[in-house]
Amino acid sequence: MGTSITVPVCRDTLPLLINDPLCAPLLRALWTPEQLAALSATVDESEVYYAIALAYTSWNPEATRAALMRDWFGLYARGGMYLCTVSLPGWRRLLEAAGFQRVESARPDLWDLDGAGYVLDLRHRGVDGWIDSLIDNAGDELPPPAKVVAASDPDAAA
């Protein structure tokens, strides 16, 4: 048994996310108040998603975790920008191996463990470019990801 929750980041969902102690540090680290106000207006227009939760029980955890991760990676196939905050070392390693960039200034004050915010921005390099970089660097430490560009930055370089 498991569940995951991913929320589009837009002006409609921002009041919920910006007041959440898990999500707010990463949102504030990535964007100024003006940039947050310029996010897409609605869920349907958003290209930014926040993976809020991934949880499963102790019954058949390997299969459940695999199914939940398959759902997450299926979402990544849409392109866009993906945000996540994690504390467990294994999950941090997984995100880093998948090309997520750790945002050092986005540390929630929720856990005794070393929690941090992560970003995977596929808006400019695309899904194929992301997968190519994972394949090209299989077994190697990944190169640092490209600079994260604000979702509302119209002058972002491709």
Describe this structure in a few short sentences.
With 158 residues, this protein is of the alpha+beta class. It has a single domain (2-136), classed as Aminopeptidase (3-Layer(aba) Sandwich). It has six helices and five strands; from the N terminus they run βαααβαβαββα.
Describe this structure as you would to a colleague.
- The protein has 158 residues and is an alpha+beta fold.
- The protein has six helices and five strands, in the order E-H-H-H-E-H-E-H-E-E-H.
- It starts with a strand and ends in a 22-residue tail after the last helix.
- Strand 2 (48-56), helix 4 and strand 3 form a beta-alpha-beta unit.
- The radius of gyration is 15 Å and the shape is globular.
- It has a five-stranded mixed beta sheet with strand order 1-2-3-5-4, sandwiched between helices.
- The chain has one domain: Aminopeptidase (3-Layer(aba) Sandwich).
Radius of gyration: 15 Å
% residues in beta strands: 15-25%
**What oligomeric assembly is this protein in?**
single chain
The name CATH uses for the topology is: Aminopeptidase
